[in-house]
Design the sequence.
């Protein structure tokens, strides 16, 4: 029976992505949205939308929304309820089609240890267990959570001395994240590549694969760049790995879309690590090289249609995940309003961002996926680099320049980056003067000294850029021509034209947005945030109280101290959570807790005081993961 109406139980880019395919298929869509997402764009991407309160995990409200709106099926997207067997069953009981595999298949792959057993009995190699860890296999090993996902509850251990601490912290992280602290230990494969196969099963007993994706570029075990085909596979290996992936699917009578993940060791041996029973974030690279819309195929399989034959790949696709985070500050999440959103062109962009979008603390930090396609790897890579270079995001910090750093690295170019490859983010050395000039001159009246409300009436400004404070002054030479100077003596000649600013004879387009005391400036050469500093800084408060401040916006997960407690340097004070990341705030001074200024569950702003400590030394707080 062809579906007529489908509910999308997700948000963000994937909700919009699913709605697009439904539109193309003539299927009406119902979006759901949380209270926090009232102004998000995904409810508009669907034909109708239903608010579901606090959480995208509220099974009863989602089923009720589907029933009320007359939807016949639910697509769960990725994350949230997509790998929740109880939800798949609840859909079935309510007479709704769950666009995904059976609850049994979800359950059997939900535990990594059970999944290993299935793979092994299907004749597929699995990573040797790391026990006994001082046996011939030896260290390094990796401690993993059976219920794991998203890189949580995972610790690499290189010596026996580190093992107990790693087990303990992995267990508590797994308990918090999954409500299940069961762990297992695998041998850590050095220099491995992450190669996964997209598989599909239909209701007629067919299981096929749609080639591989290479997701070796990861941070904290989370993927950031994905491509297909993998530069590490030859046809022979591709055939064997593809057959292994299909064998696992067949072993559990798999239906719908799934991904079988492997590690490929430098020796050429490969090992199954886990299977994801849903559509993946990185599915577009497969779509671009096979020409198959995977969401459409998911829906068709759920309607009972048979699968096509295994496709052949044409060309090469590379995806980069643009995240709201600060590479120069330990990748802490960045929140705020996106004043200007203009992703690069000539690539596929999957996103729910738009001008004015709010990036909050409740959801993950993915802003967009940029996916380039070309006849070969070099062509796709060049296109992706160009698209990232021309992407303008003003308002939050992003990993844009870090992605460029990765894509332009020698290792990535040569196709030899493994899962341990990650360059240290570097600060792009910039001449700040053009950005400041653009920030000052973007108002037509900006630098005219006689304008009454002109914040720049005094032709000099104290600013901070990338943590560097500087004074910038300027004077008008004639009509649209200015001279800008920094305190350090740099000078630039600036001409304002209709096409942008001509700075020292080079014409560029600049995009500027002022918000509060920040001026965001973007140009094709780069972007930066300029903070205007007050000319008369308040005198530093004297006193013996020190405070632990929040390094990021977030929610207080746990408070680990009480008033009156003595603390020593390094002790944990508070655990914060933002965008699915936990952050422990520690003290780096010895003292006594004088006051706790927040409550559990409270949402805090960056810089907000959390705990006040009667200090014996100068205030400093440190953070870690
Ligand atoms: P999650 O479900 O949390 O994403 P995975 O089991 O998929 O965890 O592993 C995520 C990543 O962790 C892999 O892509 C790989 O980089 C690394 N990893 C996992 N197991 C091993 C291992 N045995 N040896 C080396 N790296 C591993």
Sequence:
């Amino acid at each position: 029976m062809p579906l007529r109406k489908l509910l999308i139980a997700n948000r963000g880019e994937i909700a919009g992505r699913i709605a697009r395919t439904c539109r193309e298929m003539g299927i009406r869509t119902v979006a759901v949205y949380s209270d926090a997402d009232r102004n998000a764009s995904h409810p508009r991407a669907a034909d109708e939308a239903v608010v579901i309160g606090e959480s995208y995990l509220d099974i009863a409200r989602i089923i009720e929304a589907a029933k009320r709106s007359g939807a016949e099926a639910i697509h769960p997207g990725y994350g949230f309820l997509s790998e929740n067997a109880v939800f798949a069953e609840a859909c079935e009981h309510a007479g709704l089609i769950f666009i995904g595999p059976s609850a049994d298949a979800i359950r059997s792959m939900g535990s990594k240890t059970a999944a290993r057993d299935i793979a092994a009995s299907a004749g597929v190699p699995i990573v040797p267990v790391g026990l006994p860890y001082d046996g011939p296999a030896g260290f390094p090993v990796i401690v993993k959570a059976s219920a794991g996902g998203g890189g949580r509850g995972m610790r690499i251990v290189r010596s026996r001395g580190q093992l107990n601490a790693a087990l303990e912290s992995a267990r508590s992280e797994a308990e918090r994240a999954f409500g299940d602290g069961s762990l297992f230990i695998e041998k850590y494969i050095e220099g491995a590549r992450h190669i996964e196969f997209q598989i599909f099963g239909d209701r007629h007993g067919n299981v096929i694969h749609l080639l591989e994706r290479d997701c070796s570029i990861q941070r904290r075990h989370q993927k950031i760049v994905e491509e297909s085909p993998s530069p590490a596979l030859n046809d022979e290996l591709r055939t064997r790995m593809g057959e292994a992936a299909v064998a696992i699917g067949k072993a559990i009578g798999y239906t719908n879309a799934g991904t079988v993940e492997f590690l490929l060791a430098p020796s050429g041996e490969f090992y199954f690590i886990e299977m994801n029973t849903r559509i993946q974030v990185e599915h577009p690279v497969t779509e671009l090289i096979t020409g198959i819309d995977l969401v459409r195929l998911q829906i068709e399989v759920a309607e009972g249609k048979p699968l096509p034959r295994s496709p052949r790949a044409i060309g090469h696709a590379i995806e980069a995940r643009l995240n709201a985070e600060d590479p120069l500050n330990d990748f802490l999440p960045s929140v705020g309003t996106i004043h200007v959103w203009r992703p690069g062109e000539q690539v596929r962009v999957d996103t729910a961002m738009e001008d004015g979008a709010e990036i909050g603390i409740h959801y993950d930090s993915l802003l967009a996926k940029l996916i380039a396609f070309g006849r070969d790897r070099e062509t796709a890579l060049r296109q992706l680099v160009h698209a990232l270079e021309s992407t303008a995001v003003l308002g939050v910090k992003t990993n844009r320049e870090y992605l460029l750093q990765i894509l332009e690295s020698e290792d990535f170019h040569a196709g030899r980056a493994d899962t341990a490859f990650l360059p240290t983010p570097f600060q792009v050395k910039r001449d700040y003067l053009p950005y400041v000039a653009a920030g000052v001159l973007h108002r037509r009246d900006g630098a005219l000294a006689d304008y009454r409300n002109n914040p720049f009436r005094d032709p000099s400004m104290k600013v901070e850029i990338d943590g560097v404070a500087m004074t910038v002054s300027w004077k008008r030479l004639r009509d649209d021509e200015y001279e800008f100077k920094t305190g350090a003596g740099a000078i630039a000649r600036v001409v304002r034209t209709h096409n942008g600013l001509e700075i020292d004879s080079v014409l560029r387009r600049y995009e500027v947005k002022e918000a509060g005391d920040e001026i965001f400036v973007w140009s094709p050469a780069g972007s930066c945030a300029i903070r205007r500093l007050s000319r008369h800084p308040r005198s530093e408060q004297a006193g013996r109280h020190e405070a632990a401040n929040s390094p990021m916006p977030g929610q207080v997960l746990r408070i680990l101290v009480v008033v009156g407690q003595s603390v020593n340097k390094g002790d944990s004070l508070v655990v914060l959570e933002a965008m699915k990341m936990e952050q422990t705030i520690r003290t780096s001074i010895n003292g006594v807790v004088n006051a706790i200024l927040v409550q559990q569950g409270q949402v805090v702003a960056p810089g907000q005081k959390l705990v006040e400590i009667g200090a014996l030394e100068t205030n400093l707080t440190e953070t870690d993961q």
In short: The chain has a mean pLDDT of 90.
